[in-house]
Write a structure and sequence with these properties.
heterodimer, A: 102 residues, mainly alpha, Helix Hairpins, 0% strand, B: 172 residues, 6 helices, 77% helix
């Protein structure tokens, strides 16, 4: 078994990003779409951490940006869920096709 | 050796449960699968040598975000009607086809980069950050990127206060 390289992490991040894109396009439930967007953010975060760990010497800035990205992702999800909650009270549906008139 | 075992197990869990999270019809099962994905990603961060990112990922994505999602599901989906709308299946097939072509192209690029890139990047070795990553974070957060860190804190505070005010206005 060979050691872990940068490409292992990049490939995993790529797969997670593609799963997130396909989920955000194909899913009809708003919460599933938001979860898929979080998958995409996590895939990007893996890239940040992997590049910082393998190529970052001596600064390791990617670790800090990964931390910032986690915070921004959490805020984005909270705001999006609150907007969904407000829209849901009007529409009474979680189908994203009914949410064209934001 | 342990890093490799943890990485491969976590990677399999991540991909498998990410697909399941999209596939499940029941939104609560999707949420549980997403929790497994987020915690597996925390383990992957740990194998990359960044313990602090792993802890933050575990705390924020493993606990805080699922709680918010669970509360939202309780307030919305269970009360209303969950619909299975009839999105055109041809669009789904075309999207899957395009996604497959896109994925194959990206895999090709990654495989090509195995051959061409290593001389271009300043790749240290096959081992990630060794030892304690906390001093690196302390240096970054409190010295180099202190303004960025404060700005992120400000954004989080604005979001919390804004949501509270917005909720009051909606009630009125």
């Amino acid at each position: 078994m060979e050691g872990l390289t940068l490409y292992h992490y990049l490939f995993l991040g790529l797969i997670l990003f593609v799963i997130g894109i396909s989920g955000s396009i194909l899913c009809k439930n708003v919460i599933k779409v938001l979860i898929s967007i979080e998958f995409m953010l996590c895939g990007i975060n893996i890239n940040f951490i992997a590049f910082a760990s393998y190529c970052g010497s001596p600064a390791y800035d990617g670790l800090i940006f990964g931390l910032f990205y986690t915070g921004i992702g959490a805020v984005e999800l909270a705001v999006a869920l609150y907007i969904f909650y407000l829209m849901y009270k009007k529409k009474l549906s979680d189908n994203i096709e009914h949410y064209g008139d934001l | 050796m342990y890093n490799q075992i943890i990485f491969y197990i976590s990677a399999i869990f991540t991909v498998l449960f990410a697909l399941l999270a999209i596939k499940f019809d029941n939104i609560f099962y999707s949420l549980l699968s997403a929790i497994v994905v987020f915690i597996s990603i925390a383990a992957i961060f740990f194998t990359a040598g960044s313990e602090y990112n792993a802890i933050i990922q575990f705390a924020v994505y493993g606990f805080a975000i699922p709680v918010i999602l669970g509360i939202t599901i309780m307030f919305t989906t269970l009360k209303g009607k969950t619909e299975n709308s009839s999105r055109n299946k041809w669009i789904s097939y075309i999207l899957f086809l395009l996604g497959g072509i896109f994925l194959i192209a990206l895999i090709y690029l990654v495989l090509i980069s195995f051959v061409t890139v290593p001389d271009g990047f300043n790749i240290n070795s096959n081992s990630p950050v060794s030892g304690n990553s906390i001093p690196i974070f302390a240096d970054g957060i409190f010295k180099k990127y202190v303004w960025g860190f404060e700005l992120i804190s400000l954004v989080i505070t604005i979001a919390a206060i804004g949501l509270t005010i917005f909720k009051k206005e909606v009630k009125d």
